[in-house]
Design goal:
Number of strands: 2
Low-confidence stretches: 291-295
Order of helices and strands: HEHHHHHHHHHHHHHHHHHEH
Mean pLDDT: 81
Oligomer: single chain
Length: about 325
Amino acid sequence: FILLTAFFALWSYSGLEYEIKEQNLTQSLEEKVTLGYLDKHIIQAIKEENFDDVQMYQNLATLLHIDLLPSTLLNIESHNGFLEKSWRNTKAFTSGFVSGGGSSAMEISGSIASDLTVYGDLRDLKKEGSKYMDDEPYDSFILNISLVGIGLSASQLLSAGAATPMKVGASVLKVAKKTGKLTKPFTKVLSTRLSKTVDTKLLKTLEFKSLFKLEKTTKTIAKSIDIKPVKSLFNDVNLIKKNSSLVDTINIMKYVDTPKDLKAIAKISGKYKANTKAVLKVLGKGALRAGKSVLKFTTMLVWKLVGLVLSVFGFFFALIAKYKGLKRIAS
């Protein structure tokens, strides 16, 4: 009976079938986003001069086929004059390029541009490396990811385009850290992997006081970098950037706690493209749930479950009979 019960248990288990029903994110958006919702958030974004979010909500309205109020459209247009926009963008881009930080789209674009020209990584390496050598508090994350960025820039793969996605991923994550968009859990994951990517012994040999001398050591840095521990993460970040935008990808990082979250967002970005940031802003981390596992009942499964139940009952009846038999023998 024990063998028979085990057989029916395995037979029943083999009949279990699950169907993953993915969330309908568009339906969830439609339930939450109304004309009033959009109007309220657009007006608030204009007051805060957050024109990136203004554009985001306009794109969301298009996705959900919602016509914005004429007064809202007029308000947007009145704050988006050509000269005003050009000056604002130029000033923001320059600020981001020089400082490596920023909050607006153009500031972040400038910061990314500085990294892609290697200047940004050298600037950050000089700043954090000097603190490291002087035994002062320094940001190990920025130090290590700058080394990785320099290594990727100096790599021969970059000229062939193979390392470009990883270089973009590294730059996005560095700017996200600087602008406070990286979560603590994901920063910890990245820091652990970066520590395996960078040869810390190399730091003692670098001259951090001079950008010129650091620039001369880029090839040496490139040879000391093992990109494998962070390669998949950088590629996922680049995929999100490819589907949405540089700026949106940086802002999206605040929803990432684990590599699994990052992959989930990369999948969402494949469907919602430029609206990925809006999906996450409206629905939050709930959008990352894969869906519900629903048990599928089939005729075969029912027969298998009946067999399992009968075999379990048979097993217990056998135990009772065995117990009574032993008791008679003992008497």
